[in-house]
Every structure is written in structure tokens, then in C-alpha cells.
Predict the 3D structure of the following.
Amino acid sequence: MDFSSKLLENAVNEVSRLPGIGKRTALRLVLHLLKQPKEHTSYLSNALLSLRNEVKTCEKCHNISDTVLCDICQNPKRNPEIVCVVEDIRDVMAIESTAQFQGLYHVLGGKISPIEGIGPQNLQIDSLVDKVSKGEIKELIFALSSTMEGDTTNFYIFKQIEKFGITTSTIARGIAVGDELEYADEVTLGRSILNRIPFENSLRN
Amino acid sequence: MDFSSKLLENAVNEVSRLPGIGKRTALRLVLHLLKQPKEHTSYLSNALLSLRNEVKTCEKCHNISDTVLCDICQNPKRNPEIVCVVEDIRDVMAIESTAQFQGLYHVLGGKISPIEGIGPQNLQIDSLVDKVSKGEIKELIFALSSTMEGDTTNFYIFKQIEKFGITTSTIARGIAVGDELEYADEVTLGRSILNRIPFENSLRN
């Protein structure tokens, strides 16, 4: 692309470094900003800058937070003995929106992925093992996505905490509510038959 | 969406005001920035701010430019008597990349669109009529997209400059090079038969 303006070229290059945004999309976004009042651009820039420079991670669960301890970890009504292991804040938000979980979280910050160069030392695994070894946790729920990386991470953590003898569980895999059986993949359907639950339990929600 | 951080919520809200970017995409982009070094975010913010605050539009063609007159209008090798009317900088970049046009441009800044509340007074139409009335232009090439809005804009400008008796033309519509006839829409195919060209001319490129 041959730009008539260095300022424009620079802005397009920076925006197109974001994941999933190519040069054409970046140009469209930047031209949109040029058509809007100047305040829009300064609000956007300031919001990004203050987030990047001021945001903290909760000391206890490592979730993104504005305070040293996040609202969930601070909440005295939550049960600190049940901890749900998740990848990042999006999973916390997803589980919180169900209003079905009253324990705390532990945010790993990613999954073990040799291809992307992410090893256990890049994730918040040591601090989790530390919490378990101190006897603070009675049940650990693994809620990572069931991919190769997620399963590897689950297994790695399980091996580290096995000796402490706490309860470990993993969220149920099965056919989504409202889905047709005929379109389900065989692995999911197979697991949902193996891990069938008493019919009375299905009436609870 | 229920965020654990006001800073994060604010950043996601600002990013999701960009066209075609929803809350989920905005969250993905913002979390990506949080994983990158702080410099990435400051480069991005600064690039957007300096573009918005310092960019100019060329006095002559109204294209985005860092200088009072853009590089194309300043170039003495270009023919100022042939002017191509386009919607925005993307069209200028597209035509420039063909290296087939040696005239100047006139950037309207949009198309007449009553639905979006864009009338002739919001576009650079008066300055174009002014240039034509001064006898600066011998041929005007309409290169707006052939949509309802584009055709309306072309016709509006044509009616304004008709009395000055300059040559007006519009870019050729037809089957794209490399395309199969059977997949072409009938309007395009019909126009390409009506506006057929001498076979020798097709050998030029």
C-alpha cells in the first residue's frame, strides 16, 4: 500500500499489528476516526494507555483487577475452599454470568503450548501448587478448554498436586442445551453417554 | 458483559465504538495489548493521536496529506487538466497502484446519501465546480462506485458542470480480467457488450 501521508501510514501500521486486523481493515478503522470528532480519538487513546499502564492483576487469583485483591477474592460470601482453574478473564466472565459458582478462581494466564513457546514457568502454576500445598483448597475444578493444550495443562497441574490428596474435578462435557443429537460430534456424544447423570439431577436447573 | 476492572471496561467500550468491532472482538484486542510490552500500546495511541491532530487535507484535491499540497498535486509531471473524481483516499490509492493515470484527483469525501444524512453541502462539490468554472480542467473522469449513491453523486455533479462544456467520462464497467462470463451479473455483462472496444485496443496492456 502506498500512502499519501506518513501519519496515516504510521497509524495504519500500528492498528494492523493487532491480531486479526489486516491493512485494509486498519485503514477503514483509521479513516473512520478521521471522520469523527477529535475527542473520539483521544478517548480511545487514553482508555488504552491508562488500561495498559495502571491495570493490576489480583494478588490471589491473578485475574485483571483495578485493586490489589479483585472483587471476587474480596467477597466474604464466596467459598475460598473451592477454586476453579481457568485460562483468562474471559472464562471468569463466562462462568460468573451463569451465577452457578460460588467459589474462587485461579487464572493461569494461558495454556501450556510448546508451539507458541508457552511452558509451565510462563503460567501461574507455581502459585496454584503453593496454595494447594498450604491446605487452603479442598476442591479444584479444572475449567480449561478441552483442546490438546488444555488437557496437557490440566494433566501437568494434576500431577503436581496429586500428592496433596484434594478433590479434583473437571467441568462436564456433553451436548449443549438445545442442541440436536444428530449434529453432535462423536467424542462429545460418547462422553455425554459415559458421564450420564441421574435424571432427577437434570431437573434442578 | 460484567468486567472485573473499570479500566478494562472503559477500554473495551472505546474500542467497540469502531465500525465492525463488537464487544467480544474489542475484549480480544485489548487483552492482546495487555500481553504485549507497554510500548506497543503507547506507539498505537500516539500514532492515532498524532494522525487525528496533525493530518491535513490537500488544499487542491482534498486528499489526506501531511503537507498543504499533496505529493500528487505537487508533481509537475502530472497533467492538471485531467481530473479524476473519487470518493476517498482508498480510491486514490487503488487507481495509483495501476500506474495508468497521470492526471490529478478530486476527493469528494463521500457520496450523496440521504439515508446517512450526507447532502452535496457535506462533500467537496462546490470546490470542484469552482475549478471547472475557472477553466482549469479539460476532462473530468467520474470514478465513484456504481451504486445508487455513486450514480446520484455523478449525476448531481454532471448537472452542475454541464454548462461549462468540458469533456466528462466515467471509468469502464465490464467483466473483470480473469473472470468467467457465466458468473457475471447481467447488468455488468450487458454494459460490457454495449460499450465494447476495438480489439486492437485490448492488446495494449
Observations:
- The mean pLDDT of chain B is 91.
- Chain B touches chain A through 59 residues (CB under 8 Å).
- Chain B has two domains: 6-54, 74-171.
